[in-house]
From TrEMBL:
Pfam families cross-referenced by the UniProt entry: SPDY (PF03771)
Species of the source: Streptomyces dengpaensis
Protein name in the entry: DUF317 domain-containing protein
Phylogenetic placement of the source organism: Bacteria, Bacillati, Actinomycetota, Actinomycetes, Kitasatosporales
Ranges for domain DUF317: 51-109, 137-193
Matches recorded under InterPro entries: DUF317_SPDY (IPR005523)
Amino acid composition bias (Pro residues), ranges on this chain: 241-255
Length: 255
C-alpha cells in the first residue's frame, strides 16, 4: 500500500461538464511539444497564441476578465475545406477542449464517413428537452443544439440551470469538421470523473454534482501531463518496421 505521505488528495467530479476549467497547460503544452505548434505570443501579455505547422490553424487563449470566450480556435480556408472557428468559454473543462484539439491534431485524419455528433449523447441517455431542440444531459444542466440552416448553421453547447447564469458555452461554426464536434460530444458523454484539486472544486451548482475525495499516488498527479505529451507525441512517430527475416541457409547437398 502507498504511504499516505506519498499520496495527494484529489476530488473526483461528476458530471464532468461541471468540473470547472482546470489547467490550460493540459491543452497548450501537448500542442507545442507533441504536435509541433509554434508559439508567437508576447511574453508580457496574458495570452497564448499557438499556430499549427501548416500555418492554417491558430489557437488563441485570451484570459480577459470581462470576456468569457477565452479559447478560440480558427482554421483558415483551404483548397479542400472552408474555414471554420470554435470558441470555448473560460469555465469549459480543459479535458473537453482537449478532446477537440486531440482530434484536430490526430495524424490519421478524419474518418471517411462523417460521424453524427449527437450519436454519443444518445448512447449516454441524453434526451430531447420538452418543446426544445437538440439533446439535454440526464441532469438537465447541459444541452447540445444545431441551430440555423445548412451552410449557415452553428453547433451550440451550453451548461447552466434556470436559477443560475450560464456556466460555460461552446460554439462551432457549421463548417467545423463533424469529427471534431463529435470528439467533444464523446467527452461530454463520458461518465469518467474529472479530477481537480479539492481547493479548486467549483462553487456553482454544487447540489448538481457528485464529489468524491480520494488519495492517489503523488507521481500520478506530478507526471500526468508528461504521460499525456508522450502518448500524443507517439501518434506522430512512424511505426517501427519489423526487422527483415534473414534468408534460410541453402540446404547442403549430400552425396
Amino acid at each position: 500500500m502507498t504511504p499516505v505521505s506519498d499520496t495527494v488528495e484529489q476530488a473526483f467530479i461528476t458530471p464532468r461538464h461541471l468540473a470547472g476549467g482546470g489547467d490550460p497547460g493540459w491543452i497548450t503544452v501537448p500542442l507545442h511539444r507533441a504536435s509541433g505548434w509554434s508559439y508567437g505570443h508576447d511574453p508580457l501579455m496574458p495570452r497564448v497564441l499557438l499556430t499549427s505547422p501548416d500555418q492554417l490553424t491558430q489557437l488563441r487563449l485570451d484570459p480577459a476578465p470581462d470576456e468569457p470566450d477565452w479559447w478560440t480556435i480558427r482554421h483558415a480556408r483551404s483548397a479542400d475545406h472552408p474555414g471554420w472557428a470554435a470558441t470555448f468559454q473560460n469555465r469549459t473543462p480543459v479535458e473537453i477542449i482537449a478532446a477537440f484539439t486531440d482530434a484536430l491534431t490526430d495524424p490519421s485524419g478524419p474518418p471517411t464517413t462523417a460521424p453524427d455528433p449527437f450519436a454519443p449523447l444518445r448512447g449516454a441517455g441524453w434526451v430531447t428537452p420538452h418543446h426544445l431542440g437538440g439533446l439535454a444531459s440526464p441532469d438537465g444542466v447541459a444541452r447540445v443544439e444545431q441551430l440555423g440552416t445548412p451552410g449557415s448553421d452553428l453547433w451550440h453547447i451550453e451548461t447552466g440551470v434556470f436559477q443560475d447564469p450560464t456556466i460555460w458555452r461552446a460554439v462551432f461554426t457549421g463548417t467545423t469538421p463533424p469529427h471534431l464536434i463529435t470528439a467533444v460530444t464523446q467527452s461530454l458523454a463520458d461518465q469518467t470523473p474529472i479530477t481537480r484539486d479539492p481547493q479548486r472544486v467549483p462553487g456553482w451548482s454544487r447540489n448538481r454534482m457528485t464529489v468524491h475525495l480520494h488519495h492517489v499516488p503523488a507521481p500520478d498527479i506530478a507526471f500526468a501531463l508528461e504521460r499525456r505529451v508522450s502518448a500524443l507525441a507517439a501518434r506522430h512517430r512512424p511505426a517501427t518496421a519489423a526487422p527483415p527475416v534473414p534468408p534460410s541457409p541453402s540446404p547442403r547437398r549430400t552425396r
